[in-house]
Amino acid sequence: MSGSCRSGLLWATLLAALLGGACGADGPGGDATPAGTDAADALDTADRRSPPRRVLLIIADDLGVDQLDVYRTSDSAPASGHVYPTTPTLSGLCDSGVRFDFAWSAPTCSPTRATILTGRYGFRTGVGWAVAKKNQLKLSETTLPELLAPAGVATANVGKWHLGTDDDIGGLSAPNQAGWQHYAGPVDGVLTDYATWERTVDGETATSTTYATTANVDDALAFAQARRADEPWLLWVAFNAPHTPFHKPPNALHDSDGLSGAAAHVKKNPALYYRAMVQALDTEVGRLLSELKSRGQAPTDVVFVGDSGSPGQVAVAPWHVDKAKGSLYEGGVRVPLCVAGRAVTKPGVSGALVHTVDLFATLAGFFGVATGDAGQDSHDLAPLLADPSAAGRDVVYTESFGNPQGDPSEQGRAISDGTYKLIQLEDGSERLFHLASDRHEGTNLLASALAAPAKQAYDALVARLATLK
Prior knowledge:
The protein is built from 14 helices and 16 strands. By secondary structure, it is an alpha/beta fold. It has two domains: 11-395, Alkaline Phosphatase, subunit A (3-Layer(aba) Sandwich), CATH 3.40.720; 412-466, no CATH class. It has a ten-stranded mixed β-sheet, with helices on one face. The chain has a four-stranded antiparallel β-sheet with strand order 13-14-15-16, covered by helices on one side. Strands 3-12 form a two-stranded parallel ribbon. β6 and β7 (204-208) form a beta hairpin. The longest helix has 25 residues, at 270-294.
């Protein structure tokens, strides 16, 4: 690896290095690419009125806002000496477009995927936890690719599916039955090994020995390469990374030193391996953008999102290990989200309340497709892409239910008006936090008598929750 990768890229050179060349660009998935292309150059932002629209949705698994330097804030600054993963590609996308600082997901992966795919909350679709037998996505749901098909949009889902493979929803062809014209990836939720895994392509499964993050990019490139020059497409790329099992990625994809890869060392130092996995993800996303451009299929828009908060064993203080992925606390549901490309008329940072469910209407809107009766919970983010300071939702909502081994003191619903946040758990307990001054949810205001503003907010949030059933 180059010395510049080991010493870290200066912020002024991040965008110039975005696509490639500086760090790990000669990985196993492709040849080295030249440096000097910035985030805007990675996208086809020519005449905003000109077809075709090509939209790339990138989903990272178990990547919370605590893990990305671009999301560092004064109230979430890590301990001195903390090293963030090197992520010039993801940081470049966030800096060149609109970065959302108050984006919620579900606290686990399947429900978040279902919200994006259907534009509906989990209590409507039945998907409230990592998919098992009783909560798989039903074929009766109207999905994003089904909505886009009449408009002639080619669609592909690459990477982690994790929305079920029962026979009544299509078995291994479940992604295709859900509307995707092409699917390639691991249909289950967790890879047992990133180097040897079961890859399903349109219902047919075979063992892959290509590093999974690299294989996802290869499959995405193959889909795009097969498209006509004038054909619009939506490419959903859902990486397993950086979900467990923590491991040492191929050396060419990261610059972390001192990683033996031995099971005992991984167990003792999960954060070191997690960080290397995030950097490997960033390197491969850079390759994806670079090669799409070189092949004449540069996306017009890129959306990047995490599907849940980071797992507790790698949570970065002051984010708490017990309030991470799987929980309804901010560490479980506050995720990175940014949009870059033709749809963005005014780059910047938005503090508006948004939810992953909003990507359904937003992505449909990129193609000029109205959602009609579908996606009833989804709000188009277009106004925020035109003006990041615009108002978003008045409240944001999330939920967790259906875990067969779940503790009722951990599952339930949460809602926030941006200042206050209420959590109602299945065991009947409640938590109220003043997020504006207590982002890491250390003080439950319901432990004592509420002051008038808190009481007013509490009553309003309770009333609003009552409408979401």
